[in-house]
């Protein structure tokens, strides 16, 4: 490598941090030098691992520890509270870096195009997840007024939402759930949460650990229905999955273990119902949600289902759609509206004609869509970084700022000149330490419980001055 590289990565979730770490390691092993700036629209790093995973998943959130180590090494510079496309343009980044890698993820709910979905009382799962994770862009209050709730979807996000809404708040107190969320859940009148999937129990998109956790929630009965299993019986595709996939075997056995004989008495104060072979066709209500109409489905034999013409109405007062996430466009970049991704070839961002845009790359969900786990994210980053370095070796990267060479520090000067208050890794460490001190010192007097709650500090818009009071609340001045 004839000269050092200067690379900007946009998005400080796992995809962006993994890309930065792989890039640093590969360049260093090749005897070169690389300077990496990691831009994040929020003041804090970690993306959906911080703001998209339920607070009662400490094992999953353990991923933060490894991400922390990568950033704490000091080889990647964090520039937070900066939204690319608003505070600084894509073109301004391209002028100052050899390459720009976009890892902005998928933060909004995929649409569910059925009548009534916009009624009051109908919500996207991504929004309520952001609420109970303390996302700074979401109001601290959430309307929890329903006794019966429908969650539409058969993936882990649907299970997370259903579990948190059904769970007694006292059983969240040993997590880092914000205290305003505890207060909101305590006031909730919920008794029944229904999760609906359009395919059979052999085709759920859960993971075994997520499913198993449902049966461990105190004072919440998990209810499944024999009719759903009988309708799914004999599906050759489901049988083939069961025979070849150990995860499917575990989940099928877990689900069958929850089947109860006729007349079984459920004694918990709350119930979480799992329904299969139900396709939503309409949200019902006069002025607000009053129910959901489903068409019963049947397996076709190839993994898909078809409608039976049989409809059922389920009375509920709130609906949460958890049918997937979708990425958002970035101003100044092409965007595939149908797939909700930045068009790319192996991570090389392409223009309308399909030709690579020199020096612009993508990785993670904005590259491939919101599918796959952490392992897929690492593989994505490796492919993108490999192609970036191949382009660098071939002299295909544009030389930023002409003969002067690329210089990320000029971006900081630009942000300062515009009055953009950006955060740094050192600043984030101070805020994180403050949050932890608050959590260690505070016990909720209103709840008799041995656990400790760690309050997440709320971050307000950059043009407002903030004071943190003794109890962790923010006061504006």
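Q: What amino acid sequence fits the structure above?
A:
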């Amino acid at each position: 490598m004839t000269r050092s590289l200067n690379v900007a990565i946009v998005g400080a979730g796992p995809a962006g941090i993994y890309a930065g770490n792989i890039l640093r390691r590969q360049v260093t092993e090749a005897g070169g030098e690389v300077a990496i700036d990691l831009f994040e629209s929020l003041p804090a790093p970690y993306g959906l691992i911080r703001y998209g995973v339920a607070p009662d998943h400490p094992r999953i959130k353990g991923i933060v520890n490894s991400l922390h180590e990568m950033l704490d090494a000091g080889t990647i510079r964090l520039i937070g509270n900066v939204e690319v496309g608003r505070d600084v343009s894509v073109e301004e980044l391209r002028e100052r870096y050899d390459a720009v890698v976009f890892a902005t993820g998928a933060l909004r709910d995929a649409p569910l195009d059925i009548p009534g979905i916009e009624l009051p009382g109908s919500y996207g799962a991504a929004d309520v997840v952001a609420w109970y994770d303390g996302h700074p862009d979401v109001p601290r209050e959430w309307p929890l007024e329903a006794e019966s709730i429908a969650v539409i979807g058969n993936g882990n996000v649907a299970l997370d939402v259903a579990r948190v809404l059904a769970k007694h708040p006292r059983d969240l107190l040993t997590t880092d759930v914000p205290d305003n969320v505890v207060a909101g859940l305590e006031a909730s009148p919920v008794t029944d949460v229904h999760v609906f999937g359009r395919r059979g129990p052999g085709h759920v998109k859960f993971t075994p650990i997520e499913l198993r956790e449902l049966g461990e929630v105190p004072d919440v009965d998990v209810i499944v229905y024999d009719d759903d299993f009988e309708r799914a019986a004999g599906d050759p595709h489901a049988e083939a999955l069961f025979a070849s996939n150990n995860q499917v075997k575990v989940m099928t056995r877990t689900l069958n273990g929850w089947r109860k004989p006729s007349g079984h008495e459920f004694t918990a104060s709350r119930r979480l119902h799992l329904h299969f072979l139900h396709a939503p066709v309409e949200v019902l209500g006069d002025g607000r949600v009053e129910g959901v109409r489903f068409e019963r489905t049947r397996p076709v034999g190839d993994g898909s289902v078809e409608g039976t013409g049989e409809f059922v109405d389920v009375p509920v007062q709130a609906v949460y759609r958890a049918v997937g996430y979708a990425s958002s466009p970035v101003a100044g970049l092409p965007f595939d509206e149908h797939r909700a991704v930045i068009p790319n070839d192996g991570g090389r961002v392409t223009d309308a004609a399909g030709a690579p845009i020199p020096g612009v790359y993508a990785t993670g969900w904005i590259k491939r869509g919101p599918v796959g786990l952490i392992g897929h994210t690492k593989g994505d980053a490796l492919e993108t970084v490999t192609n970036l370095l191949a382009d660098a070796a071939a002299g295909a990267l544009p030389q930023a700022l002409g003969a002067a060479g690329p210089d990320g520090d000029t971006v900081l000067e630009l942000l300062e000149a515009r009055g953009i208050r950006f955060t740094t890794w050192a600043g984030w460490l101070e805020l994180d330490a403050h949050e932890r001190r608050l959590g260690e010192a505070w016990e909720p007097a209103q709840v008799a419980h041995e656990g400790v709650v760690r309050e997440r500090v709320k971050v307000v818009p950059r043009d407002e001055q903030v004071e943190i009071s003794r109890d962790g609340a923010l006061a504006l001045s």
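Q: And what stands out in the fold?
A: The two ends are 51 Å apart (CA to CA).
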